[in-house]
Amino acid sequence: MGKRLIRLFTFFILAFSFITSEVYALSFTKPKVVEKIEVDEEILNEKKEYIKSSKITDFYSNWRGTRYRYGGTTKKGVDCSALMQHLYKEQFDVELPRTTLTQVKIGEQVIGNRENWKVGDLIFFKMNSRIKHVGVYIGNNKFVHAGRSTGVTISEYDSYWAKRYWQTRRVI
Fold first, then answer.
1. Residues carrying an active site annotation
2. CA dist., res. 43 & res. 144, Å (int)
3. Degrees to nearest 5, angle at CA 158 with 154 and 162
4. Vertex 124, ends 51 and 82: CA angle to 5°?
5. Band of the pLDDT at 153, cuts 50, 70, 90?
6. What torsion, rounded to 10 degrees, do the Cα atoms 46, 48, 52, 57 define?
7. Which of 20, 32, 115, 135 is deepest in the core (most CB within 10 A)?
8. E strands of the chain, at which residues?
């Protein structure tokens, strides 16, 4: 009876240790539950707009006051389409075509009124039947461009520009 009791006791100890080791092992291999993080799309979009706005503002501070020169591509003198080329390449790593007439063909046209414009959209104007102009929207009814009389500047989208408005394109 002593041997039988020892075997039974040994059996229970082994069984108990096997069960607890399995439970212990399972506690380490069990995958952890990760809570689903919901992203507020509106906050994310505001952050993207802020980043774009900051990049354009930084670019503008380096080019502000540069005189306008038709066909110019440097800080010694720049035209509107070359300014947009520099902005998009330097700040967004996007290559734009050289002229306003080729830039107006890229991206996606923004349909509707100004409320649909976003920071970074290209705004195109027809100054007359043969002269076209481009700037970049920075929000709050303002845009950066290289004006013939002002050089690189920020302008208000007012009645002067509204009369000449052609279209808006979204590239970024």
1. 80, 133, 145
2. 25
3. 110
4. 70
5. very high
6. 50
7. 135
8. 73-74, 77-78, 108-109, 122-126, 132-139, 142-147, 151-156, 165-170
- Per the CB < 8 A criterion, the answer to whether 132 and 87 are in contact is no
Q: Check if the beta carbon of residue 171 is closer than 8 Å to that of residue 94.
A: yes
pTM of the model: 0.76
147 half-sphere exposure, CB direction, 13 A CA radius: 11
What digits encode the pLDDT tens for the residues 11-40?
A: 556 555 555 555 455 555 556 666 666 778
Residue written as token pair 């902005």: 87
Confidence of residue 44 (pLDDT cuts 50, 70, 90): confident
pLDDT at position 11 is: 56
43-71: b (≥16 Cβ within 10 Å) or e: eeeeeeeeebbebbeebbeebeebebbee
Q: What's the burial of 38, exposed, middle or buried (CB within 10 Å: 0-12/13-18/19+)? A: exposed
Structure tokens at 163: 């009369």
Provide the token pair at 168.
């808006």
